[in-house]
Design goal:
Blueprint lengths: L4 E6 L4 H11 L10 E6 L4 H16 L5 E7 L2 H4 L5 E4 L11 H22 L5 E4 L4 H10 L9 E3 L2 H15 L6 E2 L2 E3 L7 E3 L4 E2 L2 E2 H5 L2 H13 L1 H9 L5 H16 L6 E6 L11 E9 L2 E4 L7 H25 L1
Parallel strand pairs: 1-2, 1-4, 2-3, 4-5, 5-6
Antiparallel strand pairs: 7-10, 8-9, 10-11, 12-13, 13-14
Bound molecules: ligand NAX.
């Protein structure tokens, strides 16, 4: 049996936490031969801490063979201690009457503190995934607050958008999701993201040619994927949780264990390619091998794609400017 690895999860008593922790403990994220120690963080309020205790009791009651230990805490320095993986799910939700800029500020405070704690106590190889919204900018803040850790260790979750797009394409073409290769989503995890199937193939054939309907792309596909989160809230009365947890599992699984050459989408710090300024946490196609992701390079960007990629970039730049004063 391998040595246990430490997996920190914030917002552990929330909806996504409840769909996520049991799957991590059962081995779905890091493999059925990898024991894990779960280190769970919640806010220091009585209700949240009590709910966290309840989740830990249920984890105990599953008697997962791979669950080698558990820590529950309200202190990031405890939850992130020696963490090999950190899934930052907890964030301040948008309350009634709250402006987007207020939401940014409140979350900037949380992710500054958590970035510093990761910097101080986590493993130097920690793989960080930010799920809590605004995910890209929160990941950017955490990265900037952790100057002693490599920037490449910080990522944001675009995988739910990626999976949503795959599913829409499978339904449109009548093919299986698993057969769709080389699709990606560019930019911010927000309705501005750009899901791009120009390069996608099914058994070597072009998905774009198969669909052959640019109007469907612009008026159905992009709005459906972009506004899917809102559609779920309207239907369920609650935001996406199981699908978000599933996407987080996919993201970390692939980063740790590899994609065998398949493209997946990750929000990663830009290296300046594709006209995206360096450092911006931007969704791009990557492949993963040996615990590292590699950006897919050299894709052609046509005029429509450029426009869409710049649109989502501008939103990210605005968010970055909105929190710049907290990072200097
Ligand atoms: P919940 O409100 O159910 O749970 C969030 C939990 O985080 C709460 O228990 C809260 O006490 C805790 N929390 C808040 N601040 C914390 C802090 N500083 N440290 C530790 N814990 C803290 O929300 P849930 O539905 O689980 O969603 C969590 C986040 O994921 C939200 O920000 C949400 O917007 C975001 N999402 C991101 C997605 C993505 O694709 N990137 C998709 C799904 C989801 O909307």
């Amino acid at each position: 049996m391998k040595q246990p690895v430490r997996v920190a999860v914030t917002g552990a008593a929330g909806q996504i936490g409840y769909s996520l922790l049991f799957r991590i403990a059962s081995g779905e994220m890091l493999g059925k031969d990898q024991p894990v120690i779960l280190q769970m963080l919640e806010v220091p309020f009585e209700k949240a801490q009590a709910a966290l205790k309840g989740v830990m009791m249920e984890l105990d009651d599953c008697a997962f063979p791979l669950l080698a230990g558990m820590v529950g805490s309200d202190d990031p320095n405890v939850a992130f201690k020696d963490a090999d993986y950190a899934l930052l799910v907890g964030a301040r939700p948008r309350g009634p009457g709250m402006e987007r800029s207020d939401l940014l500020q409140e979350n900037a405070k949380i992710f500054t503190v958590q970035g510093k704690a990761l910097n101080d106590v986590a493993s130097r190889n920690v793989k960080v995934l930010v799920v809590g919204n605004p995910a890209n900018t929160n990941a950017y803040i955490a990265m900037k607050s952790a100057p002693d850790l490599p920037a490449k260790n910080f990522t944001a979750m675009l995988r739910l958008d990626h999976n949503r797009a795959l599913s829409q394409l499978a339904s449109k073409t009548g093919k299986a999701v698993a057969d769709i290769e080389t699709m990606t989503v560019w930019g911010n995890h927000s309705p501005t993201m750009y899901a791009d199937y120009r390069f996608a193939t099914i058994a070597g054939a072009s998905v774009k040619d198969m669909i052959n309907d640019e109007d469907w792309n612009r008026t159905v596909f992009l709005p459906t994927v972009g506004k899917r989160g809102g559609a779920i809230i309207e239907a369920r009365g609650l935001s996406s949780a199981a699908s978000a947890a599933n996407a987080a599992i996919d993201h970390m699984h692939d980063w740790a264990l590899g994609t065998n050459g398949k493209w997946v989408t990750m929000g990663i710090p830009s290296d300046g390619s594709y006209g995206i300024p360096e450092g911006v946490m931007y969704g791009v196609p990557v492949t993963c091998a040996n615990g590292e992701y590699t950006r897919v390079e050299g894709l052609e960007i046509d005029a429509f794609s450029r426009e869409r990629m710049d649109f989502t970039l501008n939103e990210l730049l605005e968010e970055r400017d909105g929190v710049a004063h907290l990072l200097s």
